[in-house]
Amino acid sequence: MAIEIEIEQPSVGLSKISVSDTHGEDSPYFAGWKAYDEDPYDESTNPSGVIQMGLAENQVSFDLLEEYLEQNSEASSRDRVVLTAGATAANELLTFILADPGDAMLVPTPYYPGFDRDLRWRTGVKIVPIQCDSSNNFQITPQALESAYKEPDDMNIKVGGVLITNPSNPLGATIQRLVLEVIFGFVTRKNIHLVSDKIYSARRMSSFTLISSQTQHLLASMLSDKKFTENYIKTNRERLSRRYEMIIEGLRNAGIECLKGNAGLFCWMNLSSLLEKATREGELAIWDSMLHEVKLNISPGSSCHCCQPGWFRVCFANMSEKTQEVALARIHKFMEQKRPK
Hints:
Aspartate Aminotransferase, domain 1; alpha/beta; four-stranded antiparallel beta sheet
């Protein structure tokens, strides 16, 4: 089954870079976002709308942030924090700093579909995938890393860095970092850069613009408040853990197994049993059915460059618990429809 993804064409003349394919918006990942934007779920006003499970954004502790901002609107700060318009701008900024046009960045698969835009579009840098698979829970192996490094090296292309984030690998960066230290001595205290998740999302090149200086000042102050940050981290971890257990248990009750994770805002669920053929087209057919039949926007593994068809990224931290319960009920319904009679 062929899946066609429609891309809205601009009605006015635009620059070559703004209409080039390197923006990455011909991916199912962005097509799912468009479907959500056109028919967003709302418990009261649109209960049959599309539920957004493609956004890896942490909203479970917004109440703590709102409370702090209300109480500390005039706070000052000496914190050394660089703030950008979300992780998108930060990732591009690091790419500009670490690599020149034509250089390569190594990224383990499956990785966030937006990296094909964020890291490449304006920097001219190439992405070389570090191929990971489910045989070892998608962890980076020395062999996979060495193979990925060898590809650009054989073509005399400089490797500017290795990008490991929660969105790029379901098990987080701790163990992966040890691999890099052993193989290349690549990671040192000075070249580790921590990038937080997005404050908000935007379209096309607006993703890379700066937030206001007032917002930067306020957020830097908040991050330097030790009492607040310790409470926020503790509470946020507890809430994310509860959400993770909730979605894993719900998917298990629907007959779906997930990759075990220890961090992040999403899980990787395995629907390979529903594939008639283990192909990208078969995977996209499942994605299309889930998007239009039960109105759930999830991300197919192929849009994240996963080499094994049938894996899907499901975000759980960007919605209320009640909405998550609705989403799980829809997944149950979908599985019941697809099971052999």
